[in-house]
Amino acid sequence: MTDTSDTRPADSEVQAPRQSRLHRLMRYIPLIAPVLLWAVPCWVLLHAGQHWPLPVTLVGTALFALGLVGMPLAMARGRRRQQNRAAIVGDTLLGASWVLFTWSVLLGVLLRFALTVVGVGESQDRARIVTWAVLGITAVLLAWGYAEARRVPRVRRLDVQLPRLGAGLDGIRVVLITDTHYGPLDRARWSARVCETVNTLEADLVCHTGDIADGTAERRRAQAAPLATVQATRARVYVTGNHEYYSEAQGWVDLMDELGWEPLRNRHLLLERDGDTLVVAGVDDVTAESSGLAGHGAHLAGALNGADPDHPVLLLAHQPKFVDLAAAGGVDLQLSGHTHGGQIWPFHHLVRIDQPALAGLSHHGTRTLLYTSRGTGFWGPPFRVFAPSEITLLVLRSPHLPTSP
């Protein structure tokens, strides 16, 4: 691998990311979301035709009120004061309340309607069936989701044909990990096991597309340290995600460099084999420009500066929505993360408001492919529901192999 690009692209090449509907809604979510997440289940489980004994109603309502007040306080304390225990409590309550809210809405409407149609019991009987169904499903999903979040991801393998890839590069093995989100829960052992799994894949190129951690490099160093053991025959490359810019992005860039990874900050490397070349480029996250950090910003023109336009391009960009610029710039394959595949259903549908892809391989423009990983770790709530984590092995294929005589 050889470095051939300019590290200081012109600012005129920057295109600010489009403001999505989700971004506008985010202004109001901190005020509205906690109330909805706790008030709706409280009403469905305790008050909507239930007629529970008064002590049950009072105690249950008090617990929901405690969650409503305690969750945002714990999350704020955990984030602002970097208190791990508070963050764990707040994040766990957030995940639990989301699952409880979802199934309270679904079963509170659909199941109750179905029971009414088939004439099951009286109104109170139907209400209590809904209550126990919601509690049972929530408990099962949270237990399963916790196990899914904490396990070492399964390896997802796929062949990706790039029309411009030379025959000499056919079979190049690219491993993608992303969104490890080292955080309040100490996952140093998990990190080591992920790296052990990566090392069984015989990668030529290993990529990390950002969101390494929640917190500073100093606080999460022990969890990130196993990344130094990752093996690749050609290179280990990294780009920043939006969460790096919530703490200290430059600190993470420096630490990854220290661990032996190549930060592709708006530049590229060349992967060459048997006379053929693949441009491996990377850009900062699209939020970098607004971070105020000098020299940080997503500059595709800078990343490709000096690259032969006839060579295929593999681009690392944390967020899938960068693919619009990638397609316009002639990129052949973009690797991204960020979405977590929705992490906890049905958050999937909200993610799709902001991003062009949720997970997997998709086509954009005339030749650009986008692979979006569901992520290797988890953010915040320690649950994954209908959104499994992954380590991805992409084997690049060329259509130009010589035919057998």
From TrEMBL:
Keywords: Hydrolase, Membrane, Metal-binding, Transmembrane, Transmembrane helix. InterPro entries: Calcineurin-like_PHP, Metallo-depent_PP-like, Metallophosphoesterase_sf. The chain crosses the membrane at residues 28-46, 52-74, 86-109, 129-147. GO terms for cellular component: membrane. Signal peptide: none annotated. It comes from the Bacteria. Residues 172-341 form the Calcineurin-like phosphoesterase domain. One of its GO terms (molecular function) is UDP-2,3-diacylglucosamine hydrolase activity. The keyword Membrane applies. The keyword Nucleotide-binding does not apply. One of its GO terms (biological process) is lipid A biosynthetic process. SUPFAM superfamilies: Metallo-dependent phosphatases (SSF56300). This is Metallophosphoesterase.
